[in-house]
Hints:
alpha+beta; about 25% helix
Amino acid sequence: MLRSMYSSISGLRNFQQKLDVTSNNIANVNTFGFKKGRVTFKDMVSQQIAGATGPDEVRGGSNPRQIGLGVQLGTIDTVHTQGSLQSTNRELDLGIDGDGFFIVADREGNPYYTRAGNFYLDENGYIVTGDGYYLLGEVDNGDNADLIINNKNLYRIQIDPDVESFSIGENGVIVTVESGEESGEESGEESGDTTANEIATIQLAYFANPEGLQKVGSNLYIETANSGSPFDDDTGGIAPPGEDGTGRIVAGTLEMSNVDLAEEFTEMIVAQRGFQANTRGITTADEILQELMNIKR
């Protein structure tokens, strides 16, 4: 009788964890670049009442008789499907159409990876995330940059505040437009010409097993022992957008969460009913135990 109670308790515990993951998905339905979670279950060890027997000259064979002892958590997966791209028309909003992650880092050079492409400029003209992590790529003036990661030619990307405008192509190339007025004044002649310069190329990281990445909050991931590393050519890599299987960059858009509300509400109902059914199992077992206790009366 106690086996049924403990089996139901394991069901309560694991359906609660499923509900936790589902609720987190719903809470992040409008989080840029968020990838939803998914819970899977597996059965626990089964107690064997009788083993299997093979057929003989007198009787046929019989199957094993086992009683399951409950359920346990199998996996909590991060589902890296493509989210829809929402147009913002902001030049520093970058969406990835395909595979790959933006590479960002702190001043010490610790790398993080993200799909959230809402970037900004700090007072020095560096492209940063909302939390101040620097966007990395290859730059033309690498001798003047001071942040390199693992000799992969990854630098902080800086846009001169004095440029007239800039644009970011789908291949990650950043082009600045400078007015020719200053050069004309130096030569004593008026000039309305502009000059376009390619100053940097955003790089994307890819992994042998992106589902193995670890979420650390703030839309950031870090690599783990099972994700592979973009700094190891055997388990990942770093490439410009559109190369080596990476997606292209769509400037002026942001990748939305890949959470499907209809699916999540359905999973919430399943978790609720599963939780409710297991409570009924505990209640029923308790009632039967109560009947046994009443036999003495």
